[in-house]
Amino acid sequence: MPAFFEAEFWNWQNPEFWVGVGFLVFLVVAGMMGGFKAAAAGLDAKASAIKTNLDDAARIRAEAEALLADISRQSADAEAQAKAVIAAAKDQAKRLEAQAKADLEETVAQRTRLAERRIETAQLEAVAQVKSAAIDLAARATEQVIAARLAAGKDPAIDEAIGQIGAKLQ
Fold first, then answer.
1. Dihedral of alpha carbons 44, 46, 47, 52, sign
2. What is the pLDDT of residue 14?
3. pTM reported for the whole predicted model
4. How many domains does the chain have?
5. Is residue 93 part of a domain?
6. SS3 of 56, please?
7. Residues 16 and 3: beta-carbon distance below 8 Å
8. Contact 3, 9 (CB under 8 A)
9. Residues sharing a CB contact under 8 Å with residue 20, sequence separation 6 or more, in sequence order
10. What is the residue range of 96's domain?
């Protein structure tokens, strides 16, 4: 139980009594001097400052949430755009692959045709050379045969040809 309810507290010689009296005098003087109004005004100012800080914090939080939502939306947009770019790149790669394959097939076909033409030309040249060699050989052989018959003095083919000339001239 507090000492306030004991009789010894109310003794004039008790220092606790004088502390209580001094406190009451302080409160009366502070009240008369406007101390309570100043304390209330200080508390009101502090409460107002706290309310302002809370309002600022709420505003900043709302801005942060809006910024977070905007960043999330931009991130989703960027991700969707990246997926679209990747898909377009894959499509383009497929088209380029198909085009390269078609170009390669065309090049191979063109080179095949060129090689076939070269082979055909080489074959024709070889046939022409063989024919030319055969004609030269036949001409030399004929020349040798004719020369041998003429050297012998009489050639029945020449005699027959001379005989036909007369019939042809008439």
1. positive
2. 79
3. 0.41
4. 1
5. yes
6. helix
7. yes
8. yes
9. 4
10. 35-152
